[in-house]
Specification:
heterodimer, A: mainly beta, three-stranded antiparallel sheet, 2 helices, 12% helix, 51% strand, globular, B: alpha+beta, 31% strand
């Protein structure tokens, strides 16, 4: 059975470029520098999503053990080809997730699986993996902060040209006070 | 009067209509400033998230050990520090991103970004002020 190959694809958030092959038996990513291969057998593939991220489009694959793998670097033109491959080999529909580019800082937070999603006009603005949250805090009733696990904590120090590391985000959540104000009226 | 009423209404703004206009630099997973779109793009766990300059209050920067920290503060309701409490919001009851903090070993780049954001903010404020004066 022949495999279809996509070049210049990233695995997860790592900086290394590699090739992703899709075939009847499953899919596999291999980096250009390391020999390590990430293989996902057909039986493990439960769902797939298509979403615009920083490095162009991302293929998100849901696995049977509730884990997921992400692959960045697809172009808009790859969508149709990928969608038919996933259907043909794994019987999975490539679901398109809408992303907002409005540039607004207000919206709604929503827990989606293992992520905290921030939605603007019902479209995803960003998602934060809750697993990466090291600490959270509520200040002054209306402010919630999330601190993230430092990437450099693995012992290996980041280089000067590493990606910028998000260490904290704070949300203003008027919930409680709004209710109190509302009951006054 | 009418002027006061006008000053308190929320004016619609938008960074991009779709992903097509998104700048290539956002791929770097670093904080970028798109002056043309009056937008700051923040990397968030693989996403590149645009924030229009109108949503931004200010930026602050500080050094701690080998790292430089860049904190971007946003306009939100209920900020005691804000002198003008009449800032209009489209939906004051929504959840707002209030601040995001990044760290990098490249303090020089954070210097540049911090300056770019501050300059863009000034530029937009100035233009806004001129518009108001013209209207008077």
């Amino acid at each position: 059975m022949s495999a279809t190959q996509f070049d210049r694809i990233y695995h997860g958030l790592a900086p290394e470029i590699g090739k992703l092959r899709v075939a009847n038996s499953g899919m596999a990513w291999k980096g250009e520098e390391n020999e390590a291969v990430t293989a996902i057998p057909t039986d493990d593939i439960k769902w797939a999503q298509w979403i615009r991220v920083a490095r162009d489009f991302q293929l998100r694959v849901g696995l049977k053990d509730r884990r997921r793998e992400t692959f960045d670097g697809f172009t808009r033109e790859d969508h149709d080809k990928l969608a038919s491959l996933l259907k043909q080999h794994f019987g999975v529909t490539l679901e398109v997730k809408d992303v907002t580019f409005k540039g607004w800082n207000w919206g709604v937070t929503d827990i989606q699986g293992q992520d905290l999603a921030f939605l603007v006009s019902n479209k995803t603005a960003f998602e934060l993996p809750l697993k990466q949250v090291a600490n959270s805090n509520i200040a002054g009733r209306t402010e919630v902060s999330l601190e993230f696990v430092p990437l450099g904590s693995g012992g290996k120090k980041a280089s000067r040209n590493a990606p910028d590391e998000m260490v904290e985000i704070r949300f203003y959540v008027p919930g409680i006070q709004t209710k109190l104000r509302g009951s006054d009226a | 009067g009418a002027g006061e009423k006008e000053g308190k209404s929320w004016k619609r703004f938008q960074s991009y209509k779709g992903e097509g206009a998104f700048p290539k630099e956002a791929e770097s997973l670093r904080v970028t400033v798109d002056r043309k779109a009056q937008t700051i793009i923040l990397p968030m766990h693989g996403f590149a998230v645009p924030f229009h300059i109108n949503t931004i209050k200010n930026v602050s920067k500080n050094d701690e050990g080998d790292y430089t920290y860049l904190r971007i503060n946003f306009q939100t309701p209920g900020q005691l520090a804000g002198k003008k409490d009449d800032t209009p919001f489209e939906d004051p009851d929504a959840t707002f991103v209030r601040s995001v903090t990044y760290r990098s070993l490249d303090g020089h780049r954070f210097d540049t970004i911090s300056k770019q954001i501050t300059d863009l903010k000034k530029e937009v404020n100035k233009r806004e002020q001129q518009k108001k004066e013209m209207a008077d």
